């Protein structure tokens, strides 16, 4: 798979304390230039200065207004950085990582989730749980944008993320590697305890409006639902994903 060609000639402008500092610490992608507000005089600002000096990264001290113009938001927390494009991973990287840890693969696939805050929150949960990767769809997907990075609190820099042109084909490839595929749907007839995933598990989360598309749903080994007792009778994608990931981690012993 590799990096989609549409990202080859651009850079990513990240903003916010955690996104920028975590990107520098993780070292997944090269930092080209850093920006610090002249009003930021605290530990985070000092850390950015120190990291820029140690790594010989150009650092510009700019006004609060200049930084807002640069990032197009006043939520930048006085810190920003221009980085190389996000390096999307190959599925084999995720499988190899699991094997190197003597664990079965545990992956989450997002089927056309478009809200960057949902995407970022799910990636943060996946990283916290030690998942081996996240799969996004190339079409109708938030992608790894600065907003997604910020919503993930920088977790995007620590977990492998793949961009799939054909999600069904990628899932079928994982099934060939022994993974059990679990779809999350309100109409699912299975419970988390029903899932038998001895050789790996892939959780599929559907888009905010359409859910899991039928071609993808058709290749799921289980379709599970989260029991609802109150009102409203639905959860947003990131909350549902968090519950499902914890339940599957427990049920499948990953």
Describe this structure in words.
The protein contains nine helices and ten strands. β6, α6 and β7 form a beta-alpha-beta unit. The radius of gyration is 19 Å and the shape is elongated. α5 runs parallel beside α9. 43% of the residues are buried. It is α/β, with parallel strands linked by helices and 254 residues long. The chain starts with 11 loop residues before the first strand and ends with a helix. The strands form two sheets. A six-stranded parallel beta sheet has the order 7-6-5-9-8-10, sandwiched between helices. Strands 1-4-2-3 form a four-stranded mixed beta sheet. The chain folds into two domains: 76 residues, 60s Ribosomal Protein L30, Chain: A (2-Layer Sandwich), CATH 3.30.1330.30; 161 residues, 3-Layer(aba) Sandwich (Alpha/beta knot).
Oligomer: single chain
> Structural class, from helix and strand content?
alpha/beta
Helix count, per DSSP?
A: 9
Query: Got a strand count?
Result: 10
Q: Runs with pLDDT <50, length 5+?
A: 1-9
CATH architecture of the largest domain: 3-Layer(aba) Sandwich
- Fraction of residues in β-strands: 15-25%
Order of strands in the sheet with most strands: 7-6-5-9-8-10
Silhouette: elongated
CATH top level of the largest domain is Alpha Beta
Q: What does the radius of gyration come to?
A: 19 Å
Give the mean pLDDT. Answer: 90
Biggest beta sheet summary: 6 strands, parallel
Ends distance: 26 Å
Number of domains in the coordinates? 2
Q: What's the order of the H and E elements? A: EHEHEHEHEHEHEHEEHEH
Percent of residues in helices:
25-40%
Q: Find the CATH superfamily of the largest domain.
A: SPOUT methyltransferase, trefoil knot domain
CATH overall fold name of the largest domain: Alpha/beta knot
């Amino acid at each position: 798979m590799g990096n989609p060609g549409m990202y080859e000639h651009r850079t990513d402008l990240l903003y916010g304390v955690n996104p920028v500092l975590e990107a520098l610490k993780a070292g997944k992608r090269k930092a080209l230039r850093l920006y610090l507000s002249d009003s930021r005089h605290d530990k985070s600002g000092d850390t950015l200065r120190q990291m820029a000096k140690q790594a010989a990264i150009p650092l510009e001290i700019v006004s609060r207004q200049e930084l807002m113009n640069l990032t197009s938001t006043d939520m930048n927390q006085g810190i920003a950085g221009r980085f190389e494009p996000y390096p999307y991973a190959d599925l084999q990287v995720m499988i190899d990582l699991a094997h190197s840890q003597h664990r079965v693969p545990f992956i989450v696939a997002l089927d056309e989730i478009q809200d960057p805050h949902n995407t970022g929150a799910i990636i943060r949960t996946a990283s916290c749980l030690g998942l081996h990767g996240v799969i996004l769809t190339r079409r109708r997907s938030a992608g790894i944008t600065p907003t997604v990075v910020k919503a993930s609190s920088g977790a995007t820099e620590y977990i492998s993320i793949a961009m799939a042109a054909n999600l069904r084909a990628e899932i079928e490839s994982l099934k060939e590697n022994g993974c059990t595929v679990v779809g999350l749907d309100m109409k699912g007839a299975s419970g988390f305890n029903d899932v038998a995933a001895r050789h790996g598990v892939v959780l599929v989360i559907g888009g905010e409006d359409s859910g899991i598309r039928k071609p993808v749903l058709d290749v799921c080994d289980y379709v599970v639902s989260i029991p609802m007792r109150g009102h409203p009778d639905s959860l947003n994608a990131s909350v549902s994903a968090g519950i499902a990931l914890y339940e599957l981690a427990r049920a499948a012993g990953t």
